[in-house]
Write the structure tokens for this entry.
Amino acid sequence: MRTSPGEGVRIAMSSREAILGKLRERGEVPFPAAVPVEAHRHVVPLADTSGAGLYGRFLQEASQAACIIHEAASGEAAIDAILQIVGEDTTISAWNPEYIPLPGLAESLAQANIRLVGEDASVRVGLTGVHAALAATGSVVLLSGNGRPRAASLLPPIHIAVVSATQIVPDLESWWTAQKEAGLDQLRQHSNVVVITGPSRTADIAMQLVMGMHGPRELHLVLLTGPA
Amino acid sequence: MKVQSNNFIPAAQIAIHDVDLQTAVSFGTNSGFTKRQAAMFAGGEAHGQALRQQAAAIKRHALNHLADLLEQAEANMQANGIQVLWAIDGEEANQHVLEIARRHDVKSVVKSKSMVTEETGLNHALEAADIAVLETDLGEYIVQIGGETPSHIVAPIVHKTKESIRDLLVAKANMPPTDDPGEMTQFARQLLRERFLAADMGVSGGNFIVAETGSIGLVSNEGNARLTTSLPRVHVALVGIEKIVPTVADYALLTQVLPRSATGQAMTVYTSLINGPRQPGETDGPEHVYVILVDNGRSHIYTTAYAEALACIRCGACLNGCPVYQVTGGHAYGWVYPGPIGAVITPLLTGLENASPLPYASSLCGMCKEVCPVDIDIPRMLLDLRHDLVEMGQGGAVWNVGMRAWAWGNSAPGRFVFGGKVAARAANWLKPKSLPGPLGGWTKYRNTPKFAPKSFRQLWQEREQERKGVR
């Protein structure tokens, strides 16, 4: 709280009012020539937005971002790929399988005696689905929620994200446009939206790139190309 | 943070003779500059320039409506369950954080990178209140254990070599000696992870606030910003009031232009948007989220001819491109923000009299404007600040008398011609090896030029007379 000087009378004025008041003191706008941008450019212009074009671009960009990609033509092949990465581990950090587009996943993991936990800092592998994948930058979009802990994509050194080819959209801009059309109030229900592009990294020490600073050092994308 | 910007010249002189700093800064800035160039224009020169113009328009339009957008953002954040506080200065911002810490019985704090908390000196305030605070960005952590301050907006230890980082980690964190950045990183990951899991409160900055959704936008490559805003039960974001953008479409563009400009990435590894505390059914995420909207001099800048400086998105491109920053590094600038943008906002936020050398810490080559993703006219503002300094009488007595004499001598043709003749005669008679007084700086590395036997005016008059003669 700031006080304005008076004859012994302290008139309290909140910082909020003081700041807004100061900003409004400036009668005319600081940049009269600036107009709102109506038609936002796509940061990465995509020549081919067909299904095959987006798929190819997503593969290319995700590889460039140091993701490890496992293409799977069927749900079974996808589950096999996941089991191979999990290896001998008996506990993984995972989303509720209902948010991962692979029918039979829960049963397969149970058969392999793999226990699923939400957040556990000691496990080696985290398994999640995604809300969407972005072709232009090779990114995946994850929304937090019931059965979708943030920890699964953040704490373990290895993160496996299951992506269905049908989830690939052109870019971040078009994904947001779709969210806006669906109503932003719906999106605001998710306390956390994260766009992940490759594994965690740092170049703070002498500009040398090192993976796995705080988040996963490996990001595996199990990419389902056929029917689940 | 204490302002030591009036020390710029001696500090820069020391930096120029620091071999380690020269090696590290030159490598780091060149690397950043080259990567930015490639990423910004990956879609062609014209497309890259058009993106800059859109980014510039978005920020300026947002600043035009700043007060309204702040109110809209506040209402939407509150609707999302975020508690919004306002701080007129750094002290009030720190007070808010301490009050939140008391309310939630906080003993330990983890922080992800935030320049605004460098402004407010938050770490000192927390330590003074017996609350442990740990920087978790690898660079910021090394800065913290070394008792230093960041020397670059996005690469805090760009001034340090691998060897000096190794020595620091060995001495201060008991790291087993290694020269491998991978092993150093693993060591820091484990050490910091334990502290993350034990922390009560996470403090972050904010790259953007989206007004239409009431969300906090954060970018991070390491993932420490995600951990800071996901693991502890309380999350506090300190955000400058100029960080508001109106819509998610504006945000989507800016959040991609920022990493292209900063590190040459198409997207940072984690581009997060935080919409509020954990929802029912969620098993992680903070229970309480606070946003502190920090003014600390920004509303003052808003009312001046320097409002453009508030468009800055803190990418650091102007630092990497600046021939002065490239040789002085960041610490010489003496406060939180170094480089060309620092030379503008340090005097504006801390007082021109406390940072009077900074507007001159530039060759006005224009690179800072050219690489700026939001097209801030930094050279124009540096010149205007120089003008302000002269108006304030900061030019120095000799300088002012000299300039007045110069103006008098040059404002009448007779005085100009006479002055020229006297100077030429005196110079050719005395043949000085170096010029006297402050002019000596010119002749220190150059020969004193000889005056031509005839002045341009004389030659011109003679030529005109000859032409008349021919006709």
Q: What stands out?
A: Chain B touches chain A through 104 residues (CB under 8 Å). The CA atoms of residues 10 and 257 of chain B lie 36 Å apart.
